[in-house]
Amino acid sequence: MNKSRFLRNVSANTLQTVVNQVFGLAIFYALSKGIDKNLFGQINWALAVLLTSFGILTFGMDQVLVKKIAAGYNRQSVFSAYLHHVLISGFVFYGVLLIFYTLFPVYLTQGAFLLFIGIGKLAIYFSTPFKQLSASLEKFRDLSRMSVVSNIVRGTTLLLLLFFHRISIPAILITFISGDLLELACSYFIARRLLQTPFPFRWNKRKQILLMRESLPQTGVVFFTAIMSRLDWILIGLIISSTKLAEYSFAYKIFEVSTLPLMILAPLMIPLFTRIEKRSEDLTSLSFFLEWQVILASLIGLMLNTCWVPVINFISDGKYGTVNVATILLLSLSMPLLYFNNYLWTIQFARGNMRLIFFVMSVSLCVNIAGCGILIPIYKNEGAALAYFITALVQAILYRLKKPFAIQHFRWRLTVWPLTALVVGFLAFRYTSGTATHISAAICLFLLVLYLSKSIRLKDWQLLQSLYK
User: Fold this and answer.
1) Partner of 301 at 20 to 30 A CA spacing, among 87, 151, 192, 447?
2) Where are the domains of the chain?
3) Which of 162, 200, 184, 226 is nearest to 84 (CA)?
4) Contact assessment for residue 82 and residue 62, using Cβ atoms and an 8 Å cutoff
5) Cα(316)–Cα(322) distance, rounded to whole angstroms?
6) Which stretch of DSSP H or E encloses residue 152?
7) Is residue 228 within 8 Å of 391, Cβ to Cβ?
8) How far is CA 130 from the centre of its chain?
9) Mean of the pLDDT values across residues 213-225?
10) How far apart are CA 395 and CA 401, in angstroms?
11) Within 13 Å and on the Cβ side, how many CA atoms surround 174?
């Protein structure tokens, strides 16, 4: 491997993530403009249920597949076991959903959305073995090609439908299903070349059981993570209203897009840290990499809050801007914690410390359920955002209490940079006037503090690249 490999991988993953997020925003924009809040909320509720369900159904095997292939295990064997798991679990889940809706339609008011959107999400689920194969081999260009098809098709089509005033529920459902099926087909044909042999469709019971057994510690973690990722959406739709869910899901989507660097880095870190651990090298020297991520998260959170009201009110005709000011502030406070938690999770996963990960995630799930159950009925959307922040904070505290070796030189900086962003934002709003001036002053002040701190050094970047030799 040469020194530019990290940069190539980052570039490929950046392209894929940016394209997906841009067209994902286009989808949200078209839906939020083209249909009322109630229908928008119902569609998002169905998506939350389906994404949670399919996330649980992986049982963590997708991450184990990446780890095993990156560590040098036989790719055909591992891929075959995971492919059969996905096919069996996917068809069983959709069959149960179909039977339940047929027998008890009164208990499934959004059943039509679940069934039709579920066809597309089932196709995306079937494509996960192909994508994970690409990730494990660090073929991020191929992964990019696999991962952007659905969002490009859906985003482009929905924008055209909105422009020509043809947007409707049947058109939306057809668009969703078509885009997801095309992504499955694209993933299949690209992965054929990566596997280097014909697809092994013959089921091997022994290998299937071995992979499931190895994934068992991760299964609980995946279950906890999937539940937490959309529990707030599901509860808002059930307890409050579809209209409030439409507002919250809009704010959450923008927040999710703002974590773009984390989406880019997270897939790269698992195979990288696995290789470092396999070579028995010290990860302590990489603590600067975590600091960089927290700095970036704090800066993005600062920009998000300074731009929120004028920009979002403009693009949503006032529907989703002012009403979500407190929600987006609480969500953005969680952003540095997400980078911190993901970094330490990746290290522990690479080292095989599944017991610690299971403990942290199980406690986090309990906190999240309690927080959402108590705060959502009282504070509605702001309560959901506060519960999300508390859950992320609890995860960070639990990892810190275990004194992980990788943050011994980091310590206080997790709080310094978020606090710097808060102070800088306050000063910009207190002593300047006008949206453009607010934004410029806030960014310039933050960058000035960053420059004076000398936290970004060229030799650290060179060290990071050298790990790809």
Assistant:
1) 151
2) 1-215, 241-469
3) 200
4) yes
5) 11
6) helix 149-163
7) yes
8) 19
9) 72
10) 10
11) 8
How many whole angstroms separate alpha carbon 104 and alpha carbon 385?
Answer: 33
In angstroms, the CA 39 to CA 368 distance is 27
Radius of gyration, CA atoms only, the chain: 22
Supply the DSSP symbol for 97.
H
- pLDDT of 1 reads 43
- The per-residue b/e assignment along 62-91, b for 16 or more CB within 10 angstroms, e otherwise, is bbbbbbbbbeeeebbebbbbbbbbbeebbe
CA distances from 140 to 27, 50, 146, 371, 437 (A): 24, 26, 10, 37, 39
Tokens of 127: 């494509």
Residue type at position 338: L
Q: Is the pLDDT of residue 390 over 90?
A: yes
Res. 91 pLDDT band, cuts 50 70 90: very high
How many other C-beta atoms are found inside a 10 Å radius of the C-beta of residue 379?
16
* Total-model pTM: 0.76
The one-letter code for the residue type at 444 is C
Q: Which of 78, 178, 93, 174 is nearest to 133 (CA)?
A: 78
Measured in residues, the chain has a length of 469
Of 352, 53, 61, the residue nearest 213 (C-alpha): 61
pLDDT exceeds cutoff 90 at 329: yes
Query: Rounded to an integer, what distance in angstroms lies between the CA atom of residue 325 and that of residue 313?
Result: 11
